[in-house]
Write a sequence for this structure.
């Protein structure tokens, strides 16, 4: 299995994901469907704004961050479902050509009360651009499957 | 101008947005690019899961909610930029054909310290399906432009 069952996780573990570059076309395509503001969709209007050019929708930065997170196989196939997120902040604009990567730190790992075959894993995620500047931060709360072998041993005990 | 300047907002104001229906094709298209898990992209695998069929990526539910929010012209052209979100929770799966609408309650409106031409508006957003069930909740934190007329009066005072 790619990824890690709940039992693997403990406070303080640290991961760094791969990276992904956002092109102007990708930024404008996403925004046309999901965040059609001129700052994301219209290079001329964006150039005249105080941002001085197109910036990515914050939702796209979030989506790319989750993609990087999952592609890193930290949870991988043991991922059950996302519960939510806390303290999401967009700290700095993401511009065409920016290459994003994410740093992930485990804050907490505890068994789930409502889903006995899962645990809750809270991670602090920081998304960085190619200059090492933080563009977004959040705390992700996810359900991660428990190891069936460990669950079986518990049932027998 | 469509929308409302910062001065308009006060705790307790309530808005209801229009609605939008998500098709299976839209759910699968979004997920293929931004959340390629089988539960979002593969009807057969999804049918065999405990969800019993395709469900939308939580990121898409978030994106559609923000679209509904902005289409409602609550901030409209006075919107400056999203600061972030707190307490985001995906409470219930969104399925193909579900029609989403959002309820928005103003929690706080205060002048911005770092952006004097703006105020910070915090809203509690609840996304509902056609059966009135809550599928997602969050607190959105946004910068909203102050009324230039009001700012001018302050400068003269």
């Amino acid at each position: 299995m790619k990824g890690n069952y709940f039992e693997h996780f403990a406070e303080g573990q640290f991961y760094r994901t791969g990276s992904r570059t956002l092109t102007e076309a990708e930024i404008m395509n996403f925004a046309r469907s999901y965040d059609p503001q001129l700052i994301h969709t219209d290079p001329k209007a964006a150039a005249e704004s105080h941002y001085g050019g197109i910036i990515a929708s914050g939702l796209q930065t979030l989506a790319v961050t989750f993609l990087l997170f999952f592609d890193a196989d930290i949870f991988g196939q043991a991922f059950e479902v996302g519960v939510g997120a806390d303290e999401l902040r967009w700290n700095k604009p993401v511009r065409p050509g920016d290459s994003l990567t994410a740093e992930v730190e485990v804050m907490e790992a505890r068994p789930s009360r409502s889903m006995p075959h899962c645990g809750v894993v809270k991670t602090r995620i920081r998304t960085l651009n190619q200059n090492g500047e933080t563009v977004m931060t959040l705390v992700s709360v996810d359900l991660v499957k428990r190891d069936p072998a460990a669950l079986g041993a518990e049932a027998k005990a």
Remarks:
- Chain A has a mean pLDDT of 95.
- Residues 6-156 of chain A form a domain with the Thiol Ester Dehydrase; Chain A fold (CATH 3.10.129.10).
